[in-house]
């Protein structure tokens, strides 16, 4: 995710100066586009005073990654964390002088189509917010939240959400094969359908309810399928149950991280 952000920023702002810190610089470089102008180091250079630090390690790496950051000038500036479950209060214990922004991006950022929700604590300035918008806006859209607790709900919607869509594609492909299509063809049809439907949703003003109604002729094939979604445990019930589980898990993780 850190490499995707760096690559996205360089596309929008080729003059941006980026230092990446990773215990395995070779591996980190391999995640970046070939020739990307990123200075990859195995430790935080003492002299660097970045406009913005992005904390992009796994939650379990925080106890190792935070002390060198806290000991450097970089740890006294603007820090945007993408670490799932790491609450600002927990980060603050390690970074007492930082201005902290907590964010939840999602994996479509890897192809420039991400969506990132952000929450800023009180010390974060308007200029800090613009810097975060410039960075996360380089790989998708940004949305500021009025309360940190909303990050858990965002995680359930857009953080984990791409996996729900991938699961739908897998299920549609399997069901298509069960109806007699060659499996590769069912897979191609399911992917292209979700990609096409996503493109329709991306048209400004597109309304999913209207789009659905437009393909649902009374007593037609789509109507027959959608009726199944609306009977017994409905699609809404299933998704609500799944997203409540993601929400609960996000809250639990927040109680254990850092
Ligand atoms: N993937 C998502 O959809 C998503 C969405 C929202 C938020 N996030 C959050 O983003 C964070 C990163 O996720 P990811 O999927 O990008 O994980 P990842 O691919 O494992 O990336 C983490 C990077 O941190 C490096 N690292 C480990 N210890 C470090 C240290 N002490 N100092 C500096 N760098 C260190 C790792 O290097 P080595 O591999 O060389 O150890 C690796 O390059 C996670 O906290 C996750 O919760 C992910």
From TrEMBL:
KW Cytoplasm (keyword) present: yes
Domain (Pyrroline-5-carboxylate reductase dimerisation): residue spans on this chain: 148-253
Binding site for NADP(+): 56-59
EC number: 1.5.1.2
Pyrroline-5-carboxylate reductase catalytic N-terminal domain sequence ranges: 1-84
BP-aspect Gene Ontology terms: L-proline biosynthetic process
UniProt subcellular location: Cytoplasm
Keywords on record: Amino-acid biosynthesis, Cytoplasm, NADP, Oxidoreductase, Proline biosynthesis
GO MF annotation: an example: pyrroline-5-carboxylate reductase activity
Reaction catalyzed: L-proline + NADP(+) = (S)-1-pyrroline-5-carboxylate + NADPH + 2 H(+); L-proline + NAD(+) = (S)-1-pyrroline-5-carboxylate + NADH + 2 H(+)
Keyword check for Amino-acid biosynthesis: yes
Taxonomic superkingdom: Bacteria
Pathway listed: Amino-acid biosynthesis; L-proline biosynthesis; L-proline from L-glutamate 5-semialdehyde: step 1/1
GO cellular component terms attached to this protein's record: cytoplasm
UniProt function note: Catalyzes the reduction of 1-pyrroline-5-carboxylate (PCA) to L-proline.
Family: Belongs to the pyrroline-5-carboxylate reductase family.
Name under which the protein is recorded: Pyrroline-5-carboxylate reductase
Gene name per UniProt: proC
